[in-house]
Automatic annotation (TrEMBL):
Main location: cytoplasm
Protein name: Proteasome activator subunit 4
Positions of the Proteasome activator complex subunit 4-like HEAT repeat-like domain: 2-267
Secretion signal, residue range per the UniProt entry: none
GO cellular component: cytosol; nuclear speck; spermatoproteasome complex
Subcellular location: Cytoplasm, Cytosol; Nucleus speckle
Gene Ontology terms: biological process: DNA repair; proteasomal ubiquitin-independent protein catabolic process
Record-stated family: Belongs to the BLM10 family.
Domain of life: Eukaryota
Keywords: Cytoplasm, DNA damage, DNA repair, Nucleus, Proteasome, Repeat
GO molecular function: peptidase activator activity; proteasome binding
Length: 570
């Protein structure tokens, strides 16, 4: 309660900073466009993070137009756009005690007292509810208010405590220092360049130590710390932080868990910046691509999640300019090339990669399986977070997934099979663009000729969901409806009983929702099948897949089995 009260008082004592109007078109040197166009345009590229023109000197810092609101400029500009005025026009920073108000002097006296600060840090480092404590926003607001209102006055008193806390791996102490550092970064918003530069010289070593001591209990707190620090902040102001986070996140120091945590923390910072850091996203993708064959599951899952945010801004919407950030179709094209050994293989793909990084050269198949595992994690993560549906190149992965996904629901299956099944389920629920429909149907028809009955079975379960989630798109395409009708009827005559049963279930559902109708040609077709005679029961070789009977010098497939208990056309 006391912490919340002090944070509230600090907010009331906050001094108003002056703002000045600007014209974004004059800054960019480009005229105002005739209509609204969202995305990366010539008139908003000056807001992008560019390592070649970062404000690393006092002159560059003071001449840079910092825009803190992340959403400004992406769709359009505010009618009246204002930014903070230069330092000389702002309220005085670094005030002495006699320049403070009476209320400010009380706070100043307490937080300048080393004994008071020591007792406060001890209190904030106590464990309250083991396993349930989380990053506390009230404490964050307290320190944010202190450094916003009093500049860097309390930093010398806090510095030894920060250095001690980051070296302690205990959960409560790590959470405490994360709250202080987040408040410090956010509170330094209006500091002068000299003080900000000095601050980051202190913070960078502290953050490196903290990230090397990260634990299962504290990685969420550090993720929240960095995400909170980067929220509604111009990325050019935080270039020290982003460059630090991009320093070899998968270095291997500390094991796979620390690697996954570093990526998690980096993801939290970049996700807040959205469209304004395309250079950082390209650099991160270039760094991650050679490491997509990671063996450790926790690292694969984190890479999959990070890839989702890397491609988050790559959306195809009306009146939207092409993004400067990485593009999904270019990345997926490169992935397809690397997965060729698996896609061209006829035999069943088994997961024979253990959870350990082998030493020495590995064959293409092993590398392909490791890459596929990471790609599956990415596609599953994208299904629930991405702003757009699967691109054409991603749909070309479907034959590989059909070949891997198991038929039965069995938790004993390995990670590769479970993920393939889940990925197919999620992809089948995605929106298809009309131009993608022919490609998907071509893939399904190609898979229907596969030697694997598992693959033929799985395309039917995929087809059911895909049609129902895109019902009106398919109904608007007569050729697509006929292709689906042909595919289902063809699989009704499959040599494998399980495939025929699933085809019957699929046809039943399509008839019930009136996607297909039991018209004259379909009824005639089934009547002809029913008139075919079955051969007498006889023992056959285990390798025999199809019963055949001679008819006119030709062999006819045993299609009579279509008339089984699960389906009746009448």
């Amino acid at each position: 309660v006391a912490i919340s009260a002090v944070a509230g008082i600090l907010k009331q004592l906050k001094r108003t900073h002056k703002k000045v109007p600007i014209c974004p078109y004059e800054i960019s040197g480009n005229p105002k466009p005739s209509g609204i166009q969202a995305g990366d345009r010539l008139d908003n590229q000056w807001l992008h993070y560019d390592s070649r023109s970062l404000p690393k000197t006092k002159e560059a810092w003071e001449s840079c137009c910092f825009v803190e609101k992340t959403h400004w400029g992406y769709y359009t500009w505010p009618q009246t756009m204002t930014i903070y005025a230069p330092v000389e026009q702002q309220p005085k920073l670094g005030r002495k005690r006699d320049e403070l108000t009476e209320a400010e002097q009380i706070i100043y006296d307490h937080f300048s007292d080393p004994k008071f600060v020591e007792q406060l840090i001890k209190f904030l480092s106590l464990e309250d509810r083991k396993g349930k404590d989380k990053f506390n926003p009230r404490r964050f607001c307290l320190f944010k208010g202190l450094f916003r209102n009093f500049d860097d006055a309390f930093l010398p008193v806090l510095q030894p405590h920060l250095e001690r806390l980051v070296s302690d791996s205990h959960e409560s102490t790590q959470r405490c220092v994360a709250e202080i550092i987040a408040g410090l970064i956010r509170g330094s918003k209006h500091w002068t360049f000299e003080k900000v530069e000095k601050l980051w010289k202190l913070l960078c070593p502290l953050l490196r130590t903290a990230l090397s001591n990260i634990t299962v209990e504290t990685y969420n707190d550090w993720g929240t710390c960095i995400a909170t620090s980067c929220e509604s902040r111009d990325p050019r102001k935080l270039h020290w932080l982003f460059e630090l986070l991009l320093e070899s996140p998968l270095s291997g120091e500390g094991g796979s868990f620390v690697d996954a945590c570093r990526l998690y923390v980096l993801q939290g910072g970049l996700a807040q910046q959205e469209w304004r850091v395309p250079e950082l996203l390209h650099r991160l993708l270039k760094y991650l691509e050679p490491k997509l064959t990671q063996v450790y599951k926790n690292v694969r899952e984190r890479i999959g999640s990070v890839l989702t945010y890397i491609f988050m801004i790559d959306v195809s919407l009306p009146n939207t300019a092409a993004t400067k950030s990485p593009r999904v179709h270019e990345f997926t094209t490169r992935i397809l090339e690397n997965l060729k050994p698996l896609m061209e293989a006829d035999e069943e793909i088994q997961n024979h990669v253990m959870e350990e990084n082998g030493v020495g050269e590995q064959d293409e198949r092993t590398q392909g399986i490791k890459l596929l595992k990471t790609i599956l994690k990415w596609l599953m993560a994208s299904a629930g977070r991405s702003f757009s549906t699967a691109v054409t190149e991603q749909l070309q992965l479907l034959p590989l997934f059909f070949k891997i996904a198991p038929v039965e629901n069995d938790n004993s299956y390995d990670e590769l099979k479970r993920d393939a099944k889940m990925c197919l389920s999620l992809m089948s629920q995605g929106l298809l663009y009309p131009q993608q429909v022919p490609l998907v149907l071509q893939v399904l028809k190609q898979t229907a000729r596969s030697n694997s009955w598992h693959a033929r079975y799985t395309i039917l379960t995929y087809l059911q969901t895909m049609v129902f989630y895109n019902l009106f798109i398919f109904l608007n395409n007569e050729e697509a409806v006929n292709d689906i009708r042909w595919l289902v009827i063809k699989l009704l005559e499959d040599e494998q009983l399980e495939v025929r049963e699933m085809a019957a279930t699929t046809l039943s559902g399509l008839l019930q929702c009136n996607f297909l109708t039991m018209d004259g040609p379909m009824q005639t077709h089934f009547e002809q099948l029913c008139k075919m005679r079955l051969p007498k029961k006889r023992k056959r070789d285990l390798g025999s897949a199809v019963d055949t009977i001679p008819s006119g010098g030709k062999k006819i497939r045993n299609t009579r089995l279509v008339a089984h208990a699960n389906f009746s056309p009448f």
